[in-house]
Structure of Tetraspanin:
Amino acid sequence: MEGDCLSCMKYLMFLFNFFIFLGGACLLGLGIWVIVDPTGFREIVAANPLLFTGAYIMLAMGAMLFLLGFLGCCGAIRENKCLLLFFFMFILLIFLAELSAAILAFIFRENLTREFFTKELKKHYQRNNDTDVFSSTWNSVMITFACCGVNGPEDFEAIPHAPSSSVKATPEACCQRELQSREGMFVNKEACLSGVERFQNRQGCYTVILNSFETYVYLAGALAIGVLAIELFAMIFAMCLFRGIQ
Protein backbone atom coordinates (compact mmCIF):
# COMPACT_ATOMS: atom_id res chain seq x y z
CA MET A 1 0.00 0.00 0.00
CA GLU A 2 2.86 2.33 0.84
CA GLY A 3 4.50 1.58 -2.50
CA ASP A 4 1.28 2.35 -4.39
CA CYS A 5 0.91 5.67 -2.52
CA LEU A 6 4.51 6.59 -3.32
CA SER A 7 4.05 5.69 -6.98
CA CYS A 8 0.84 7.75 -7.20
CA MET A 9 2.57 10.73 -5.58
CA LYS A 10 5.49 10.39 -7.99
CA TYR A 11 3.30 10.54 -11.10
CA LEU A 12 1.12 13.33 -9.70
CA MET A 13 4.23 15.39 -9.00
CA PHE A 14 5.57 14.64 -12.49
CA LEU A 15 2.28 15.75 -14.09
CA PHE A 16 2.12 18.87 -11.93
CA ASN A 17 5.68 19.89 -12.82
CA PHE A 18 5.20 19.01 -16.49
CA PHE A 19 2.54 21.72 -16.75
CA ILE A 20 4.88 24.16 -14.96
CA PHE A 21 7.61 23.20 -17.44
CA LEU A 22 5.30 23.80 -20.44
CA GLY A 23 4.11 27.14 -19.05
CA GLY A 24 7.70 28.24 -18.46
CA ALA A 25 8.73 27.15 -21.96
CA CYS A 26 5.86 29.16 -23.50
CA LEU A 27 6.71 32.30 -21.49
CA LEU A 28 10.41 31.89 -22.28
CA GLY A 29 9.74 31.48 -26.00
CA LEU A 30 7.37 34.45 -26.08
CA GLY A 31 9.83 36.66 -24.19
CA ILE A 32 12.69 35.76 -26.56
CA TRP A 33 10.47 36.38 -29.61
CA VAL A 34 9.42 39.83 -28.35
CA ILE A 35 13.04 40.87 -27.70
CA VAL A 36 14.68 39.52 -30.90
CA ASP A 37 11.72 39.80 -33.32
CA PRO A 38 13.11 41.23 -36.61
CA THR A 39 9.77 42.47 -37.97
CA GLY A 40 9.75 45.73 -36.02
CA PHE A 41 7.86 44.70 -32.89
CA ARG A 42 11.11 44.95 -30.94
CA GLU A 43 11.37 48.68 -31.75
CA ILE A 44 7.84 49.28 -30.50
CA VAL A 45 8.59 47.49 -27.22
CA ALA A 46 11.96 49.24 -26.82
CA ALA A 47 10.27 52.64 -27.25
CA ASN A 48 7.96 51.98 -24.31
CA PRO A 49 9.70 51.47 -20.93
CA LEU A 50 6.69 49.65 -19.47
CA LEU A 51 6.58 47.11 -22.31
CA PHE A 52 10.38 46.82 -22.35
CA THR A 53 10.52 46.01 -18.63
CA GLY A 54 7.54 43.65 -18.94
CA ALA A 55 9.26 41.68 -21.73
CA TYR A 56 12.31 41.03 -19.54
CA ILE A 57 10.16 40.14 -16.52
CA MET A 58 8.28 37.65 -18.71
CA LEU A 59 11.63 36.24 -19.90
CA ALA A 60 12.93 35.85 -16.33
CA MET A 61 9.69 34.24 -15.11
CA GLY A 62 9.68 31.85 -18.07
CA ALA A 63 13.28 30.78 -17.42
CA MET A 64 12.57 30.28 -13.71
CA LEU A 65 9.42 28.20 -14.30
CA PHE A 66 11.18 26.23 -17.06
CA LEU A 67 14.01 25.29 -14.69
CA LEU A 68 11.63 24.61 -11.80
CA GLY A 69 9.41 22.31 -13.89
CA PHE A 70 12.42 20.49 -15.34
CA LEU A 71 13.90 19.82 -11.90
CA GLY A 72 10.56 18.62 -10.54
CA CYS A 73 9.88 16.31 -13.50
CA CYS A 74 13.36 14.75 -13.48
CA GLY A 75 13.44 14.42 -9.72
CA ALA A 76 10.01 12.72 -9.61
CA ILE A 77 10.31 10.33 -12.55
CA ARG A 78 13.92 9.31 -11.83
CA GLU A 79 13.32 9.28 -8.07
CA ASN A 80 16.49 11.29 -7.67
CA LYS A 81 16.84 12.59 -4.11
CA CYS A 82 19.41 15.24 -5.08
CA LEU A 83 17.12 16.77 -7.73
CA LEU A 84 14.13 16.62 -5.40
CA LEU A 85 16.09 18.38 -2.67
CA PHE A 86 17.25 21.05 -5.14
CA PHE A 87 13.64 21.45 -6.34
CA PHE A 88 12.47 21.84 -2.74
CA MET A 89 15.13 24.47 -1.96
CA PHE A 90 14.40 26.38 -5.20
CA ILE A 91 10.64 26.51 -4.64
CA LEU A 92 11.19 27.38 -0.95
CA LEU A 93 13.24 30.44 -1.99
CA ILE A 94 10.50 31.50 -4.42
CA PHE A 95 7.85 30.95 -1.73
CA LEU A 96 9.76 33.05 0.82
CA ALA A 97 10.44 35.81 -1.74
CA GLU A 98 6.74 36.01 -2.69
CA LEU A 99 5.69 35.96 0.96
CA SER A 100 8.19 38.75 1.78
CA ALA A 101 6.94 40.82 -1.19
CA ALA A 102 3.34 40.41 -0.01
CA ILE A 103 4.25 41.46 3.55
CA LEU A 104 6.25 44.49 2.30
CA ALA A 105 3.39 45.50 -0.02
CA PHE A 106 1.00 45.37 2.94
CA ILE A 107 3.37 47.36 5.19
CA PHE A 108 4.14 50.07 2.62
CA ARG A 109 0.67 50.27 1.08
CA GLU A 110 0.20 53.67 2.77
CA ASN A 111 3.02 55.10 0.60
CA LEU A 112 0.96 54.47 -2.54
CA THR A 113 -1.24 57.47 -1.85
CA ARG A 114 -2.38 60.29 -4.11
CA GLU A 115 -0.15 62.72 -2.15
CA PHE A 116 2.94 60.51 -2.55
CA PHE A 117 2.57 60.23 -6.35
CA THR A 118 1.82 63.97 -6.67
CA LYS A 119 4.97 64.85 -4.74
CA GLU A 120 7.13 62.47 -6.82
CA LEU A 121 5.66 63.76 -10.10
CA LYS A 122 6.36 67.41 -9.24
CA LYS A 123 9.87 66.52 -8.07
CA HIS A 124 11.12 64.28 -10.90
CA TYR A 125 8.96 64.85 -14.00
CA GLN A 126 10.87 66.39 -16.96
CA ARG A 127 8.02 66.68 -19.48
CA ASN A 128 8.98 65.44 -22.98
CA ASN A 129 12.43 64.17 -21.99
CA ASP A 130 12.07 60.53 -23.06
CA THR A 131 15.68 59.79 -22.10
CA ASP A 132 14.57 60.10 -18.47
CA VAL A 133 12.95 56.83 -17.39
CA PHE A 134 10.62 58.47 -14.85
CA SER A 135 9.31 61.05 -17.34
CA SER A 136 9.02 58.55 -20.19
CA THR A 137 7.10 56.11 -17.99
CA TRP A 138 4.70 58.84 -16.84
CA ASN A 139 4.15 59.96 -20.43
CA SER A 140 3.38 56.38 -21.47
CA VAL A 141 0.91 55.98 -18.60
CA MET A 142 -0.86 59.26 -19.41
CA ILE A 143 -1.11 58.42 -23.11
CA THR A 144 -2.28 54.83 -22.53
CA PHE A 145 -4.93 55.70 -19.93
CA ALA A 146 -5.96 59.06 -21.50
CA CYS A 147 -5.32 60.87 -18.22
CA CYS A 148 -3.20 63.79 -17.02
CA GLY A 149 -0.96 63.97 -13.95
CA VAL A 150 -2.02 62.43 -10.66
CA ASN A 151 -5.00 64.72 -9.99
CA GLY A 152 -5.29 66.54 -13.32
CA PRO A 153 -3.46 69.12 -15.49
CA GLU A 154 -3.06 71.41 -12.46
CA ASP A 155 -0.27 69.11 -11.20
CA PHE A 156 2.04 70.50 -13.90
CA GLU A 157 1.59 74.19 -13.08
CA ALA A 158 4.46 74.06 -10.57
CA ILE A 159 6.76 72.10 -12.93
CA PRO A 160 9.16 74.36 -14.90
CA HIS A 161 8.77 74.56 -18.69
CA ALA A 162 10.51 76.57 -21.37
CA PRO A 163 10.09 80.28 -20.46
CA SER A 164 10.40 81.32 -24.13
CA SER A 165 7.50 79.09 -25.11
CA SER A 166 3.99 80.43 -25.48
CA VAL A 167 2.44 77.14 -24.43
CA LYS A 168 0.87 76.49 -21.05
CA ALA A 169 2.12 74.08 -18.43
CA THR A 170 0.21 71.06 -19.81
CA PRO A 171 2.59 68.49 -21.40
CA GLU A 172 1.94 66.87 -24.79
CA ALA A 173 1.12 63.52 -23.13
CA CYS A 174 -2.05 65.12 -21.68
CA CYS A 175 -3.41 66.09 -25.12
CA GLN A 176 -6.27 64.05 -26.55
CA ARG A 177 -5.37 61.60 -29.32
CA GLU A 178 -7.45 59.72 -31.85
CA LEU A 179 -5.67 56.52 -30.78
CA GLN A 180 -4.29 56.06 -27.26
CA SER A 181 -0.69 55.30 -28.21
CA ARG A 182 2.45 57.29 -28.98
CA GLU A 183 1.71 56.83 -32.68
CA GLY A 184 -1.84 58.20 -32.32
CA MET A 185 -2.59 61.52 -34.02
CA PHE A 186 -3.41 64.51 -31.78
CA VAL A 187 -6.98 65.79 -31.98
CA ASN A 188 -5.69 69.38 -31.79
CA LYS A 189 -2.22 69.67 -30.32
CA GLU A 190 -1.88 73.46 -30.62
CA ALA A 191 -5.20 74.14 -28.93
CA CYS A 192 -4.41 71.63 -26.20
CA LEU A 193 -1.04 73.20 -25.39
CA SER A 194 -2.63 76.65 -25.54
CA GLY A 195 -4.90 75.65 -22.66
CA VAL A 196 -8.16 74.74 -24.43
CA GLU A 197 -9.62 72.23 -21.98
CA ARG A 198 -11.82 70.30 -24.41
CA PHE A 199 -8.69 69.05 -26.21
CA GLN A 200 -7.01 67.95 -22.97
CA ASN A 201 -7.41 64.82 -20.87
CA ARG A 202 -8.66 66.44 -17.68
CA GLN A 203 -9.03 63.41 -15.41
CA GLY A 204 -6.14 62.48 -13.10
CA CYS A 205 -4.33 59.17 -13.61
CA TYR A 206 -4.70 58.14 -9.97
CA THR A 207 -8.49 57.90 -10.24
CA VAL A 208 -8.45 56.39 -13.74
CA ILE A 209 -5.94 53.65 -12.87
CA LEU A 210 -7.60 52.94 -9.52
CA ASN A 211 -10.97 52.47 -11.25
CA SER A 212 -9.37 50.35 -14.00
CA PHE A 213 -7.72 47.92 -11.61
CA GLU A 214 -10.22 47.93 -8.75
CA THR A 215 -12.11 44.95 -10.15
CA TYR A 216 -8.88 42.94 -10.41
CA VAL A 217 -7.57 43.56 -6.89
CA TYR A 218 -9.51 40.70 -5.26
CA LEU A 219 -8.78 38.43 -8.22
CA ALA A 220 -5.05 39.18 -7.90
CA GLY A 221 -5.20 38.53 -4.15
CA ALA A 222 -6.99 35.20 -4.65
CA LEU A 223 -4.52 34.23 -7.37
CA ALA A 224 -1.55 35.08 -5.11
CA ILE A 225 -2.99 32.96 -2.29
CA GLY A 226 -3.62 30.13 -4.77
CA VAL A 227 -0.03 30.26 -6.07
CA LEU A 228 1.38 30.22 -2.53
CA ALA A 229 -0.86 27.25 -1.64
CA ILE A 230 0.26 25.33 -4.76
CA GLU A 231 3.92 26.00 -3.95
CA LEU A 232 3.36 24.85 -0.37
CA PHE A 233 1.79 21.58 -1.54
CA ALA A 234 4.59 21.11 -4.10
CA MET A 235 7.15 21.38 -1.27
CA ILE A 236 5.20 18.88 0.85
CA PHE A 237 4.96 16.41 -2.07
CA ALA A 238 8.68 16.82 -2.79
CA MET A 239 9.61 16.12 0.82
CA CYS A 240 7.25 13.14 1.09
CA LEU A 241 8.70 11.67 -2.11
CA PHE A 242 12.22 12.44 -0.91
CA ARG A 243 11.62 10.61 2.38
CA GLY A 244 9.86 7.70 0.63
CA ILE A 245 12.69 6.97 -1.80
CA GLN A 246 14.98 4.24 -0.47
